[in-house]
Amino acid sequence: MITIDQLKIKIEKKSRLLGIDMGAKRIGISICDDKRLVATPLETIVFKSLDNLIYEIKKIIYENDIKGLIIGNPINMDGSFGKSSQSIKDKSNIIAKKIEIPVALWDERLSTVGSFNLSNKLDVNVTKRTKNIDANAAAFILQGAIDYLNN
């Protein structure tokens, strides 16, 4: 696994990235355009096993010509790393060893809240907001990362 700054160096200027919001039961997936301007929710995967998740990620990478992976890191609000953050780091390290593209973590504080509030401003009904919250959170995470990469 690499840092976001190392990712910036390793990937081409025109390359698509995949964003992941790793929940215990549902995994939000997002994707960006090859110019890395806009992150878009793609899907939500129900977590069955890490091997199954890696299989699904590899499939998405292949189908969409993905060049890098951004995984949300649930850092505590005070900036410390708790149990959730360590769990994501452990899973991310396993994923990084089993796929052939660079993997970086991105601070995901408030991503779920942010995506829920954004969909509220867009006047999306509560049922759709709740149903798509994981993929939307992944897009929120990926958007933050691509904004950073573009600056």
Number of spatially distinct domains: 1
CATH superfamily descriptor? YqgF/RNase H-like domain
Terminal CA distance reads 22 Å
Query: Structural class given helices, strands, pairing?
Result: alpha/beta
| CATH T-level topology | Nucleotidyltransferase, domain 5
Low-confidence stretches: 112-117
Helix content: 40-55%
DSSP helical segment count: 6
Sketch the major β-sheet: 5 strands, mixed
% residues in beta strands: 15-25%
CATH-level-2 architecture:
2-Layer Sandwich
DSSP summary, beta strand count: 5
CA radius of gyration = 14 Å
Mean pLDDT: 87
How are helices and strands ordered from N to C?
A: HEEEHEHEHHH
Can you offer a commentary on this structure?
The protein has 151 residues and is an alpha/beta fold. The protein has one domain: Nucleotidyltransferase, domain 5 (2-Layer Sandwich). The chain is 48% helix and 23% strand. It contains six helices and five strands, in the order αβββαβαβααα. The protein has a five-stranded mixed beta sheet, with helices on both faces. Helix 4 packs across helix 6. It starts with a helix and ends with a helix. Mean pLDDT is 87; it is low at 112-117.
